Amino acid sequence: MRDVQNDLDFRKIEINKVGVKNLKYPIVLQDKENDEQHTIALINMYVNLPHHFRGTHMSRFIEILNKYRREIDIHNMGEIMKEMKTNLEAEAAHLEIEFPYFIEKQAPVSGAKSLMEYQCKFTGMLNDKMKILLGVSIPILTVCPCSKEISEHGAHNQRGTINVQLQFKGFIWIEDIIQMVENCASGSVFSLLKREDEKFVTEKSYENPKFVEDVVRDVATKLNVQENILWYKVEVESFESIHNHDAYACVEKRC
Fold first, then answer.
1. Domain residue spans of the chain
2. Contact 248, 236 (CB under 8 A)
3. Per-residue pLDDT tens over the stretch 6-24
4. pLDDT tens per residue, range 203-225
5. Could you say which architecture CATH assigns to the domain 1-106?
6. pTM flag (> 0.85)
């Protein structure tokens, strides 16, 4: 049977990334409190394609993934990418694993417990060197310092997001990054709050007003003293409640 994908291509254009995208797959992660956490990931797998090949073998991506079913985590991402390079005769491999991660969070006054969702992502790149990044998106509260200063009553406040990308050595807990980062905002977001908790969160945030510039600098300051963090990119976005735009700030550490 003829393999059309192996036909020669004469356009002389190399493809940077080709593969499979948006594949839902069960994975198991290390959980700081409960040892393991099962979740569903959205997985993208790519390799480069030399200019002389017409196509790649899409089924091989799925075969490799199924070999590691229910055992996919950051520890074997390198091994998976090496197999992608070998089996697909490629010079570079890319693996992206995006997933919801749940942490039990306790309300500050009532002590009510609930699960809070955080979107996380592992991004792996392998050519002559290997690089693996951790991405975490943390929902936060911001209170505008300018609004508080000029207003007799209250200040505009809103939800926002801190997006962190990290390159690190050794091992790092997702839970530790989340706790470190969300404490840099005016306040935290909870999935369950009783009336007394709402009062506490609102008043505490009001007493801790921050611009997005303040938040991104505070996060960078904390990351700068972490010896196992080699590189980071921090983005803060505030979904402004009284403006027809969002506020944004970004800091990136040079390698």
1. 1-106, 107-114+136-255
2. yes
3. 656 567 788 899 999 999 9
4. 999 999 999 999 999 999 999 99
5. Roll (3.10)
6. yes
